[in-house]
Amino acid sequence: MSLVDPRSVEFACSPKREPTFVRGSMATLWDEDGNEYIDCGASFGVGNLGHCNPAVVEAIQQQARDLIHVGPTFGTKAKAEFTDKLLSIAPTGLGRVFLSNSGSEAVEAALKFARAATGRKTIIAAMRGFHGRTMGALSATWRRDFREPFEPLVPGFEHVPYNDIAALEAAVDERTAAVILEAVQGEGGVHVATTEYLPAARDVCDRAGALLIIDEIQTGMGRTGRMFAIERWNVKPDIVTLAKSLAGGVPIGATLTTEAVERAFQGSHNSTFGGNPIACAAGTAAIDYAVRERLWARAEKLGAMALVGLRGLKAPSVREVRGLGLMIGIELRGKAAPVLQALQDEGVIAIGGGSSVIRLLPPLVIPEDQWSFALDALGRALRHG
Q1: Which residues are identified as catalytic?
Q2: Contact at 8 Å (CB) between 261 and 117?
Q3: Which of 173, 183, 162, 161 is nearest to 121 (CA)?
Q4: According to the model, what pLDDT value does residue 17 have?
């Protein structure tokens, strides 16, 4: 396969026939042949605010007329406004932010900060976890087919079963720099942390002097029915990573830390395009829109409706339905690809979460009639699958 083949970024459970999109508006996409689709994958969680959200478009246009880029050693009005806005909604205790360009970069920064602040080397991550595809983030990622072609990866990473408190307690010790976890494992199949798991992880880290990193790259910005998923567990992380929908579709990454982590940090880290004014202006507009429209509450409402309906389906092909808010996984007894293709044939785009899981990540702005149509199409595909 050519390295420039656009299909190279797709997952094995994707539909066989990939449309080429030319236009988008909120939850709707149009391909080059004029066919219309309801987007229930939101570009792997990027599109919480929908495609070409007018508030984000306006912010990008205005900033592009004023200033497109300066180096990261200089301040800009756009960067200052965005960091202030982001910290104003951040989980409690996080008062510092480092800006980059993607989720993988946000995780790379988090891993470096953890090692540099603690003087330790070991990182504990979870089986089924996904944290990115750059070498450090990939080392924290569990899935074998993502890892093996690029080994040897970064040393010092260990994986334990998710939601297994005893395994976490046994793994974390005086060598551990940090534990990195998702509140909901998205790429791993939409597995939700138990009520006890994340508080236990906090306690385990505190006893060992390790840091707790929560990866909110997919779960953040209202996706799970809270602005940040960690709010449901009432846990205070030392570091949080954000990206995907943070700037309404413009590439951005953010690593939030406590002031204590910043004070203990030794070394240097930087990003040439981190804090880019256009990305920051888009991010400010995205946060303002999400807060004004209370998108987390909408995700909670529409997600609860969907979970009730999907769990009530009489579909022998379904093994389990899991999720929080508008982050939903349907685990099948067979492969997901035929169901994804059937949905696409009806004008609905969904994505996989492993070979046997259908993942729904619709824009949080999706109109209720489109969401109902998508769920009805999914029900037909599951009953006939």
Answers
A1: 130, 215, 244
A2: yes
A3: 173
A4: 67
Domains of the chain: 6-53+294-383 (3.90.1150.10), 54-292 (3.40.640.10)
Interval 308-338: pLDDT, tens:
999 999 899 999 999 999 999 999 999 999 9
Instruction: Please name the residue that has the structure tokens 């539909």.
Output: 15
96-100 and 351-352: which strand pairing?
Answer: unpaired
Q: Strand 348-349 vs strand 36-39: parallel, antiparallel, or unpaired?
A: parallel
- The per-residue pLDDT for 4 is 39
Instruction: Determine phi and psi for 85, rounding to 5 degrees.
Output: -65, -45
* Residues 136 and 108 sit within 8 Å (Cβ to Cβ): yes
Which residues have a Cβ under 8 Å from the Cβ of 166 and sit 6 or more positions away? none
Distance separating alpha carbons of residues 298 and 315, to the nearest angstrom: 27
Alpha carbon distance 97, 107 (integer Å): 13
Instruction: Kindly report, residue by residue over 72-110, the tens digit of the pLDDT.
Output: 889 999 999 999 999 999 999 999 999 999 999 999 999
In contact, 283 and 248? CB cutoff 8 Å: yes
As a whole number, the mean pLDDT across the chain is: 94
Fill in the amino acid letter for 19. Answer: P
Mean pLDDT of 346-356: 95
Give the residue carrying structure tokens 């504990």. Answer: 124
